[in-house]
Amino acid sequence: MCSSSSDLFVSLNISIPAIYGDWKYTTASIYSLRTAAAAGVDAYGYLWLPPTGDNGATHGADTGIIFGGGAPADPMGVAMMQGVINFVTDLNPNNPETGNEWPNYKTNAAVMKFDKTESIVQPDE
Fold it and tell me: With a threshold of 0.90, does the pTM exceed it?
């Protein structure tokens, strides 16, 4: 509970961008994955939480990591980059060398979640 109007403003200022991002981008992504899976198409998705800030990622914030503009030695960056490269070349992001097994949304309603310190499979709930 906020003790003053300034506390409420700070709380809303932090929450509203996160809510908007989830509504605009995350729900559209999940809808697309569900639609593809229902049509029998292999579909893969990921959720990336940047190492800075707790409000999630802004649109396009992952491009530096995916295209090598971030810290390439970062294990999360390498795993994301390798997954995207594999998907572009083989239509499948999985690669035994990275150890990340991206779930196929068609058979497992989940996405790969890249966090600050680990990558895990996150179910679509």
Answer: no
